[in-house]
Amino acid sequence: MDVFVNAAVSADGKLSSRRREQIAISGEADFARVDRLRAEADAVMVGVGTVLADDPSLVRYDESHRRDVRGADSDPPVCVVADSRCRTAADAAVLDGDRETYVLTSEAAPTDRRDCLEAAGATLVVAGTERVDLPRAFDALEAEGIERLMVEGGGELIFSLFEAGLVDECSVYVGNLVIGGREAPTLADGEGFVDDFPELELEEVERVDDGVVLHWTVP
Ligand SMILES: NC(=O)c1ccc[n+]([C@@H]2O[C@H](COP(=O)([O-])OP(=O)(O)OC[C@H]3O[C@@H](n4cnc5c(N)ncnc54)[C@H](OP(=O)(O)O)[C@@H]3O)[C@@H](O)[C@H]2O)c1
What we know:
alpha/beta
């Protein structure tokens, strides 16, 4: 499975402010680029931190681009949430609509929360004891036919993906805002690396609006 990270950061590398509210870091041209990327993916993923902070629906994508790249009868991309304890609310926007939503969870998720999300239409994938075991969960997604997974954040999930060596490509829109704040989420949070830092290969730089998109691959 190809795993592709896409996110927008401020000029100082923040995904959001210390209040963890959604911030429009990029503009219309970048939103259109993201809609095209979603159209190329089988699934779009976020961590439960993003679900709780932003309640994203992740449904928007460029339909005509999808028809071009995937054919006229392709289904919309499905949705994936990493949520070890099933904290996603039953009325979360990721569970709206007809498309399938996978909640990757762990054995630590309380039974009543699992039942609640299944009743709300989620398909649960249990992998890991305390936290989602991402390599195992991704194997299960691959077995469901997901070949290209787009990950939109946040920083905790993105760090874990780099730590597990699961990222193949990464594109980052760097916008012209300065957000600041030591508690504000960045592109990769988690524990952080102290050595063996993953290195990326710069493939492309593109000016979009008042920022740039950096496209990296992971050798
Ligand atoms: N600018 C952008 O492009 C962008 C995009 C997305 C989000 N954001 C911002 O990012 C912030 C949210 O980011 P975040 O870092 O707090 O949350 P996140 O990365 O979306 O979610 C992190 C949570 O996912 C769960 N998780 C399950 N298994 C995991 C694993 N193996 N590794 C890591 N996490 C795992 C953990 O909670 P459990 O252990 O309870 O499961 C963890 O706390 C918000 O402020 C949002 O607005 C910005």
